[in-house]
Amino acid sequence: MTLAEKILAAHCSRDKVSPGELINVRADLVMSNDITAPIAIREFRRLGVKRVFDPSKVVMIPDHFVPAKDIESAEQAKLIRDFAREQGIVYFEVGAMGIEHVLLPEKGLVLPGEVVVAADSHTCTYGALGAFATGMGSTDIACAMATGDIWMRVPPTIKFVYHGRLQPWVGGKDLILYTIGQIGVDGARYAAMEFVGEAIDALPIEGRFTMANMAIEAGAKAGLFRVDRKTRTYLKGRTSRPYTAYVPDRDAQYLAVHEYDVSSLEPQVAAPHLPSNVAPVSQVKGVEIDQAVIGSCTNGRLEDLRVAAQVLRGRQVHPRVRCVVIPGSQEVYLRALREGIIEALVWAGAVVSTPTCGPCLGGHMGVLAMGERAVSTTNRNFVGRMGSPKSEVYLAGPAVAAASAVLGRIASPEEIS
Amino acid sequence: MKLTGKVHRYGTNVDTDVIIPARYLKFSEPAELAKHCMEDLDADFLKRVRPGDIIVAESNFGCGSSREHAPIALKAAGISCIVATSFARIFFRNAIDIGLPILEADDAPSGCQMGDTLEVDLESGEIRNLTRDTVFKAKPYPPFMMELIQAGGLVEYTKRRLATGPRAQ
Ligand code: SF4
Q1: A187 and A64 co-located in one domain
Q2: B1 touches chain A (CB under 8 A)
């Protein structure tokens, strides 16, 4: 069995599961946010159930439109706050919260071998820790909150092997953009992606979160990594719960195996309006930008801000550009402060926001006007994703975003270092 | 059950951000969401759409975010059914969960134009283009999913389950 199959089998008390089977899976954690929880709560009420199945396994995080950007958003945030109080579930208020997919792993709420279902498509992020985590809709989550389990179809697994050593300034974002460019936005539709190879072994845990995060941009149900020393180091001090590090069998069956030599890979950029519209930065450099966004559940972790600060320290954001930096959580924010990263960014002329999804989905804190163009470390560049349907988003890693902020056009960090 | 309606025809990778842009996700009421359905992709959709109409699209319909607001908006706008070459998986779940029928059919999209009249038989999976007098066949649902659909969606299905069985521990 593959990694995904092993975890799923363990969560439906079976020795073996095979792709295509419909199973009922026990969830270790059920999450929703300020956008998806209001509908989940409405459907939960419709079920006629009084209490959630286990308050310690149900989480709600306001992160998309908070601190509330307008009255309607405030009402939605209030709705979930009230529900959280009523049910005694796990809840993080503004000031404690972060972007859900940065926050849950930090708080030790997701561990290897666990199953997480959440009403957010980027739930697949936790695959970085070797968990089977997948996004669903609000009704699914309402039912999972009531019963503690949910139906799933066992996905086939596609294996991705990355050979070689990455060049400087190339990271997880570039690997996953490159991969999506190769297989397309539905290249892994319904499947689980399993990421392995020397380049993966050498990748910091943050880079793995970035890659697992964007598995959904290839249409995947989950994106998984094996547990290694880096995983265990990350988990140290975050949890005292036991966990199981599953290993795929030697004779595991894969739907396909893709092998890439990434030793000469350049930083990658996805041009509008699909995450698969990928080119090496050298082919798109020169495209003028109005805004650079560094943050989100894809690239809002400490390592990402470190890279951005490395590029921006001692330089200035281009006078035509707004550079918006959003730490993914309060912990990231604090550690970036202590390391002097925030100071370097502010000196360079970036604005630094409290943790929020904000501009990633065109919510607030940097929405684009008609005709404007942004380079962003987020994960989607669909029409209208970051504001006006007539605006454009180029996706890239933090190094390219920071270099572009300095030069006022899409640029490789090599150009200024 | 047979559904009849006019076709709204779209291409590949129709994402949830264009089905219902995030600027409206501060709402969750179906009627409110319906007012902005598809506006970033097809400004005329709302003027044209009539109750019972059918969307026909190519591969990966509904890709992107998990927002259930997307199928809710389409359903509330009057769409009775979606036929596509393939669906993104979360959209697929969401549509089935809320009782919006969706059908995968490889050759139907190429045989349908904007404004054609379709008749869809959900039980048999037969898709009939009345304008062109052609017939297509949708992939059948697995039995479990048919059960979900017949129960009227996941909430009704789960209600029954809760009435008869224990909750997971
Ligand atoms: S940061 Fe963007 S992609 Fe991530 S959860 Fe928030 S809105 Fe979704």
Answers
A1: yes
A2: no
